[in-house]
Design goal:
With about 190 residues, this protein is mainly alpha-helical. The chain contains six helices and four strands, in the order H-H-H-H-H-E-H-E-E-E. The chain is elongated and about 75 Å long.
């Protein structure tokens, strides 16, 4: 009985953690996490009932009061962080704190992109990796303001395979699209 009084809380905590792990690993098994969680909570409740006189005595100690205050502060801070995360995940906004607004579009450009009535596909042909990176960043800014109407694709004119930002591949070459033309020579 002494071992049960001593270790029942740990068994309950292990069962609750196993329930959380089972819910994450096997989301299609809904009964297993529920059973484990209920068994863990029952073990914790049994521990509290068995050790009630010792727990009451411990609740009156100064160290418990300080520990409980610390626990309340930690829970409040975590709760505030979760709420801030939820708010920022739902209301996304980009901020550009550079003096010359280097990472922003002008208000006129934003107005034009937001006012698009039809879908627009922009195809870019960057010469090198640096230009591709800059062009990709610029196109992402335009797509941010109207993702349903503005699409873009960056095409490597030196290869026969293209990859769009959505990850789809096609074997289209800009030079091969025109009859009688040859692909440009490869740079070495």
């Amino acid at each position: 009985m002494d071992a049960l009084k001593k270790y029942l809380q740990y068994a309950g905590l292990v069962l609750v953690l196993a329930a959380a792990a089972a819910a994450l690993l096997w989301p299609y098994l809904q009964a297993l996490p529920l059973v484990l969680a209920l068994a863990g909570l029952a073990a914790i409740a049994a521990y509290i009932l068995i050790n009630l006189p010792e727990l009451k005595k411990g609740f009156r100690r100064r160290s418990f009061v300080y520990s409980s205050n610390l626990l309340v502060v930690v829970v409040l801070v975590l709760g505030i962080l979760v709420l801030v995360n939820i708010v920022f995940s739902r209301f996304h906004h980009r901020f550009d704190f550079t003096e010359d607004r280097l990472h922003s579009l002008s208000p006129q450009s934003v107005q034009v992109v937001k006012g698009l009535k039809d879908k627009v596909l922009v195809r870019g042909f960057p010469d090198n990796a640096q230009m591709r990176e800059r062009l990709d960043g610029q196109m992402k800014m335009y797509a941010y303001h109207n993702p349903s109407r503005f699409e873009y694709e960056l095409i490597d004119a030196w290869s026969t395979t293209t990859r769009s930002p959505s990850g789809t591949q096609s074997s289209w070459n800009a030079a091969a699209d025109r009859p009688g033309s040859r692909p440009p020579p490869r740079r070495t």
